[in-house]
Fold this sequence. Notes:
Helix 1 runs parallel beside helix 2. Helix content is 31%, strand content 30%. The protein is α/β, with parallel strands linked by helices. Strand 2 and strand 3 form a beta hairpin. The chain folds into two domains: 114 residues, Nucleotidyltransferase, domain 5, CATH 3.30.420.40; 73 residues, Nucleotidyltransferase, domain 5, CATH 3.30.420.40. A six-stranded mixed sheet has the order 3-2-1-4-5-11, sandwiched between helices.
Amino acid sequence: MNLIALDTSTEFLSLAIAIDGTLLNEHQHVGQRHAELTLPLLRSLLADSQHVLQDFDAIVYSQGPGAFTGLRIGCGIAQGLALAAGLPLIGIPTLDVLAHQHPGPRVLACLDARMGEVYAAAYDKETGSLPLAMGVWKPQELPVPDGQWQGAGNGFAVFGDSLAERLGASLTDADSSLVPSASAMIELARSQRYSRIAPEQAELVYLRNKVALTTAERARQ
């Protein structure tokens, strides 16, 4: 399956195209410049591959959770490209991607959600179960799934001490450097676990409605 994938859910921009056995990718820290850089970098990858949009089978986009503005930018770009080329979309949750990237069998994926909270979910790859479904919590209130877990994601960089105290012996180690990768999204899309949808059916997973604190709320933190 020939695919284009893009993730704009964090301060990194991750792009990948996989076609005819070749994988090309771009992964860099861009801060808040996703709207400015995504299309030019994607056009560059397409030029390097010597292919056009119509040569692909689908476009894979990040459903979230993650940065509100980044998710909307990525989804909008994916929808526009898919509509222009007559392609379906495949949406993949960011926490699924983090868990897939980590080599461990039992992974607690955790992203900084800002506002003093984290997005998290626990994945048991051996059983295919989700002992902790995706949610958003304050680190000190994160539900602790049974058993031992390896952490993945920048939530452990931002709230490392709080999460270590909360999880205790349940957390064996954590890779706080992991951020969602478009190459990993392509691997997941090829697993056939995620449905193809029409561009107008694209949805995002925010997990909360409020996306910023007021000045007074920030002062109280």
